[in-house]
Amino acid sequence: MSNLFTWITEKFRKNTIIPIFLIVFLVCSFFIDKFFSLGNFVNILGQNAEKGILAAGMTFVILNGYFDLSVGTLMGLTSCLTVGLTPVIGLIPSILLALCLGAAVGLINGLLVTKLKINAFIVTLAGMTIFRGITYMYTQQTVRGSSKAFYELSRGSFLGLPNPVWICLAFILLGQAVLYFTRHGRNTYAAGGNMSSAQNAGINVDRTVILNFVICSFCAAVAGVMYASKFNSASPTLGWPDAHMLAIAAVVLGGTKLSGGYGNMFYTLGGLCTLGMINNAMNLLKLSSYYNTLVMGIILIIVLYMDIVLREQSVPSKRANIPGAPKKLQKE
Question: Using CB atoms within 10 A as the burial measure, which of 250, 252, 305, 308 is most buried?
Answer without folding.
Answer: 250
